[in-house]
Amino acid sequence: MQMNHHPISKLALVWLTLLCSVIVSFAELEFGHCERVVKEWADTSSSPREEHPNKDKRSLQDLLFFLHVPRTGGRTYFHCFLRKLYDNAEECPRSYDKLHFDPRKQKCKLLATHDDYSLMSMLPRERTSVMTIVRDPVARVLSTYEFSVEVAARFLVHPNLTSATMMSGRIRKKNVISTLDIWPWKYLVPWMREDLFARRDARKLKGVVIIEDDNPYDMEEMLMPLHTYLDTPTAHDIIHNGATFQIAGLTNNSRLSEAHEVRHCVQKYKNLGEPVLQVAKRRLDSMMYVGLTEEHRESASLFANVVGSQVLSQVVTSNITSKTTKSEASVKVSESGSDKSEIQNSTSEVASNKIEAKSGNMTVKTLMEVYEGCITHLRKSQGTRRVNSLKRISPANFTRGTRTRVPNEVIEQIKSLNNLDVELYKYAKEIFVKEHELVSKKMVSTSKRSIVDLQNVFGEMEAEKMWKLVSVALMLLLLFLLFLFVNARRRITSKVKMKKMKSKKIVCESDSLQLINIVKKGNNIPLISLVHP
Ligand SMILES: *[C@@H]1O[C@H](CO)[C@@H](O)[C@H](O)[C@H]1NC(C)=O
Ligand SMILES: *[C@@H]1O[C@H](CO)[C@@H](O)[C@H](O)[C@H]1NC(C)=O
Ligand SMILES: *[C@@H]1O[C@H](CO)[C@@H](O)[C@H](O)[C@H]1NC(C)=O
Ligand SMILES: *[C@@H]1O[C@H](CO)[C@@H](O)[C@H](O)[C@H]1NC(C)=O
Ligand SMILES: *[C@@H]1O[C@H](CO)[C@@H](O)[C@H](O)[C@H]1NC(C)=O
Ligand SMILES: *[C@@H]1O[C@H](CO)[C@@H](O)[C@H](O)[C@H]1NC(C)=O
Prior knowledge:
mainly alpha, four-stranded parallel beta sheet, two-stranded parallel ribbon, disordered C terminus, binds 2-acetamido-2-deoxy-beta-D-glucopyranose, Heparan_SO4-6-sulfoTrfase, signal
């Protein structure tokens, strides 16, 4: 038996090794191919043409490109800063909707979008300033999950998926961009919607469903659990390392033809991520503004001082403070569009936004005040919508407190799946600290400088004028003394005629006043200019 078996097993072993080596060499080939693809992309992406070292990145160019990474709080920047600073006419048409936008044809000044950095290939690179906001990847991923659920749940008002899908197709209007038209929601929401309907149908079939656990991230009867969501092909392609891919220009939505191969290679071989991370870091370096969702107040203040102040000064110098806002040009970015009343509510939001439209006399300080008021309003309406929407999947509910219910191993899983974003976020924090320090120093030095300026004004005043000023003062003093002397003498000589004396005194005083005026006019001393800010 053993003698018979031996050659067969030997043969099998040979085959097995052969097969293994074939597989291994295929894998090596593929890795080698990926390595090359990524390297080529990285080389072209960090060419000198990409960077402009001679230019001050902090000076605002003709076009401001807001690279809006989803779920970083960019919406409040868009509505409460950018829309207050720019006229509707200055905003690129249908910013968030790339299908309808051709930047070459438009002379617009503001472009806010979820499109990735590859859009730069269509923009006038030398005349474009880029800004973005980065968020802790764990918070960003959790927020993406919650928002997918929130928007999808709005459709549960419909009796079935067919009706919901048909309805959402019908309500797409001319001037309203629905969340469903915008990447990445156009993939994430319909997918989640389908899932919610399937689970609802399953519950209906089962009859009574008792939900014992109240952890909204793991409530299988109601919605796709978070850990399942994280490990889907869609999440791998769209959500994980989303910030890095978007800033590198490698998203699932990229305009660059090789982007998809590069991305897939990086997703497959983790150690190929490094060149992508490096490109993303260099891009952050060259951006005009990098905000942090977590440092909300400081970020807003940095924005107002770095970007806001320059837009405001442009408004003053270009002298086009036309307050007229064409309603046709206004495009509302709706967060969804599952029913009519929401659209109506959104429209009224637009109207209220436009009341406090941009004006020539806005300062950084008033901009911040307008912003604060606006975010309070925006957050309130967003909160209401969220509660109204999540009510349809009750008892699942996402609130500030519920994120503590996410198990530690899931948090670790998110960090591991978003390893590049974790690094990029660290780097963005470093940039932020530097920029923040720089701007605070600048602000201190400008206030110091104004004092110095004031001293210079005194110093530059010609000595001659100074002496004239002194001599005028001396002369006035002399006149006053003389007047006192004469007055006193008269009082002594004729004590009886007191009334008469008083009227003479008035004449005398008005004479000396006139004298002062003449002296001032003659010397033309710029007294007012001394109080320049
Ligand atoms: C879905 O709902 C609509 C509206 O109630 C109904 O007309 C349609 O027959 C339903 N479709 C299915 C497949 O149940
Ligand atoms: C982007 O991702 C979605 C969802 O996974 C997919 O349907 C779509 O085909 C992807 N697009 C590209 C260009 O890969
Ligand atoms: C601003 O525009 C008005 C009319 O449009 C013009 O009369 C005025 O001279 C302009 N001022 C500057 C500083 O360009
Ligand atoms: C629309 O807004 C009104 C008042 O602002 C509110 O009562 C109503 O519930 C809102 N509708 C929806 C669907 O959010
Ligand atoms: C601009 O000035 C006008 C008139 O002086 C004033 O009514 C308005 O409130 C000011 N706007 C801002 C934003 O300060
Ligand atoms: C969800 O939580 C919010 C905030 O705590 C609360 O206002 C709302 O009523 C909750 N929704 C449901 C359906 O319990």
